[in-house]
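so my prof wants the structure for this chain in the tokens format not the other one, which i didnt know existed until like an hour ago. anyway here's the sequence
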Amino acid sequence: MNILDKIVLRKREEIALAKQQVSIKQLEAALHFNRVPYVFADFLLDENRAGIIAEFKRQSPSKGIINDKVTVEEVTTGYAAAGASALSVLTDTDFFGGHTNDLLAARAANQIPILRKDFMIDPYQILEAKAMGADIILLIAAILAPDEIEDLAVLAKSLGLNVLLEVHNLDELQRSVIPELDAIGVNNRNLADFSVNIQTSFDLVDEIPDDFLKISESAISDPQTINDLKSVGFDGFLIGENFMKTQNPGASMADFVSQLISV
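here's what i got, hopefully its the right format
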């Protein structure tokens, strides 16, 4: 059993417990449930923004603690001020040190789209995301069958949420593309062993239909890499660890963006 299998197994337990603690009616009565989500494309394609989806991540299974000294409010507002097109907030607790309260805090402090970064395998989690004030949900092809991707995406779209599908290889991409998606992300990190290879994005970009926003995720630490990815057709870039491993992630992103403009 690899780490991804372990995460999904634990996620099923978490979801079962959450359903006992908070009913769907309670989710539907939450503060943000009737909020109209931001349109992801409006922010990602805005020329006045960096095209970066900046991530708040305290820890990971491969790196352990990355940064547990900063608050979600200070980091995400710093990201937004630095020109982030969207925010990504981890809500998985056991493996990434996140919490649903992190997304609620980020929502209260920011006026740009927020991605709920988690391992989504059940419709209940989509309703949770809406109740938290998320604008985008993540569907990971590696842990979902094609019919599950369709069911979850259709539900998300019915709630006004944007849908980002994450793939790691051509097989996942070809079996998972459906009209209900807004964006397709190529994760340069192998979730089975957590190795990274930016070449994955270059190999898959032309295989992604132009109907969708194209996102490159992970292994991005150099502004020149973003320029290279833009040149082959990517619209957005998910970066977390590169900023979070510093004392001031928001300032680190601002410095990164200034270099992006100059290269």
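also thought this was worth mentioning. The radius of gyration is 17 Å.
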